[in-house]
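Exercise 7. Given the components listed, write out the predicted structure of the assembled complex. Treat all entries as one system.
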Amino acid sequence: MLVPLVIIVVFSFGYRDELGKFVPGASFANYLRFINGPYLLCLWRSLSLSFSTTLFCLVLGFPVAMWMAFALPKERQNFFMVLLTIPLSISFLLRLYAWITILRPTGLATFLLQSVGVSNPPSLLYNQGAVLLGMVYNYLPYMILPLYAALEKLDRRFIEAGYDLGATPWRTFFQVVVPLSLRGIVAGVILVFIPSLGDYVTPDLLGGAKYMYIGSLIQNQYLSVRDWAFGSAVSTVLLIIVSAGVWFYIKYGERTTVSHS
Amino acid sequence: MNRREFLRLSLSTAGSALLANSCSPSLKTPSGNRDGKQLNIYSWPDYIHPEAIPEFEKRYGIKVVYDTVSSNEALIAKFQAGGADYDIVVPSNYAVSKLRELGCLRPIEHDRLKNFGNLMPRFQNSRFDPGCQYSIPYTFGTTGIAYNTAASRKAAFVPTDWDAFWNEHFAGRMTLLEDPREVIGLALKRQGHSYNTQDQKLIQAACADLKTQKPLTMCYTSDQAIIYLTSGDSWLSLTFSGDAQQASRANNNIKYVIPTSGTSMWLDNLCIPKNAPHPEYAHLWLDYMLEPQVSAALSNYTYYASPNAKAMPLIKQNLIEDQYLYPSDSILDRCEEIQDIGQAIFIYDRLWTELKCT
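Answer.
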């Protein structure tokens, strides 16, 4: 597991020669290039996209997970789990191409808008909204599944106790359900945030490659410019940000869980 | 969507799936069994006549495995990762010189090729590989403008030059290629400069023009252009000559022009990697591809132009008569090949990233 990571870190201190071959080295030039270029903007764009994706997945996923765990009878829960995982068995690319077919200018969504009387429908594909839609669609199951697992195990008597003590439903939700399912939330957030940060296919396909995200930047450096050293440096920066984030998040998450139990 | 487009879509999807799975250019070897007589080809999606492989397999008793590549850069990256285990690869002109400099190619043994003389003289001695020592020309074409004539009539504007991409009438319905050299190159050409400019000021000016153009663009894509032209989603696309021709067969409203300022032309070539496991089969394949019938069938199917003189009589008349598929010398004089530009690629990359970040 660690070997590829070590290789990436070592590569990041080298450089690319005239022919595009990688030459080992010991310089921070690639890192300086990263902070002095348009690249930081690209990193910022990716972080905010991943943040919004995670937030939308959490806000949309939590009610679904609660409904599954609390409102559905046991055998229906399993059926619903299967429904949730069916899309995951279809290639991620085919699902994105399906969205393109729906959203494109001569596609289904524009047609529906026109048929309900919108005379000049806005373009639905190839903007940042389409990218966000695709991201949330792709990663939502990864949020719902750990949330459901946590909620399903939650002892209902805590919720009843909340009501017995006179708490409103909202207060019970925020002070009882959320803290008790925090492990599921942590797992869901990590499962959505990290892969979405490196995803370059969704922004390229649904965003029309008009905006570069950090994943495409790395891919370009490896495959088109063939500057493996710089690509590795960007990967290393991303790795540090993600690891620091996860470490902080888990530490903080653990502490909150402990203080409430 | 007819079968052919579906095929192309699924192939390009498969191609990108391969790319997505192997973000680090993987050490994936060709699929299929490793023993027995086998020829491994690494080429572009839908870039061969469907009958060509079965016919070769029947004639020589050699199984052919056809894997697809998505860009020249991905091909070179694969070689540099040391993972390429193919007998035939199909790089474009500048990639041939690059691979050759990197020492990745095996010299062609011309005494094994009895059909080499079928090639037009000017293709037997190209600038990037004099005497075809390492490469055998496969097809050639140009990158130009494909447009929808209905949309063009409505806008009362006929695209003839690169300025069309700055025309507001086509706002939101244009596609450009996801390729820095082609796109920055067209902006350079529009200003009267070369595709291979290495002057940072000129490249910067070109990119500033592209920034003003960006809000009009629907998307940057290399594999969807043909589909969007056909479906009518795109009214104006930067595209390859053969792709435009395929789209126009499916949608009569599509027309292709080579801009008056000139454009890039390219030649795709068959090469044998240095460490090819089956070089003798690879030479059989080269000679087979040089046969007039095989080369003509390829051009009739893909609409890309054949460099094979003996194949000409067998190619459909309407294709040969199309001045944009088989351009006259006066058109070709305005076009240039995209060449390897060494370290200047960093300028292009940085400005391309800047364009994509704002």
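Discussion: The first helix of chain A runs from residue 2 to 11. Chain A has 13 helices and two strands.
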